[in-house]
Amino acid sequence: MKVLREDFYGRDTLTVARELLGKYLIRIIDGKYVGGKIVETEGYLGVNDKAAHAYGGKVTERVKPMYERAGTSYVYSIYGMYYCLNTITEKEGIPQGVLIRAIEPLIGLDKISINRTKKKDEKTFERLTKKERLNLTSGPSKLCLALDIDKRFNNVLLWGGELFIVDNDDEVKKLIEKEAEPCGRIVKSKRIGIDYAEEARDFLYRFYYEENPYVSVKDKKPVYLDV
């Protein structure tokens, strides 16, 4: 598998956010691959972005990973019990990153289903309703639950370990367990859940596949990208 490394992440944040769509987020659990296709991301532009944790050059123990080298993970908790996964972008010292908002589960489907539903039956995915399937990874905290991602994976490089992102190549295709959902065109829109961020709440820094049903929230008036 072609694992994405620093040369991919160490670029313009919004470019990375857009180009992460279609890549595969993979976690190794008990020696087996579990994961899916990235279908929704959000870019956060650090010092000048009021929605970013590092806005204004803020440096705390929590946000230290944002100042690390590109491809470092930033996992933070929300509501004291859920987690969100980000990858750091740009050059070291520039606190920008991309939030992985949603994936379409395609690899290790039964393990994903068990992690999300706690049903221990065999072939759990096949027994889920369509609504339950679409709820597995259609949000940043949902995908972290599905792939068992927590603070253990904070501030680590997203290659060489048990959590990484790969290109869609022949090796990945061999791991896919079901027919993928349609994706359609890539669109951009406002980010989710940042009404506090004043003018930054209107920035079109979220990217997703228009037709994919695993996208967490679809904008009524998205902006289509040329490519």
UniProtKB/TrEMBL annotation:
The keyword DNA damage is assigned to this record: yes
This protein's UniProt keywords: DNA damage, DNA repair, Glycosidase, Hydrolase
Pfam families: Pur_DNA_glyco (PF02245)
GO molecular function, one term: DNA binding
Enzyme class: hydrolase
Enzyme Commission code(s) on record: 3.2.2.-
Record-level GO BP terms: base-excision repair
Top-level division of the source organism's lineage: Bacteria
Keyword Ribosomal protein: no
Family recorded in the similarity comment: Belongs to the DNA glycosylase MPG family.
NCBIfam families according to UniProt: 3mg
Descriptive protein name: Putative 3-methyladenine DNA glycosylase
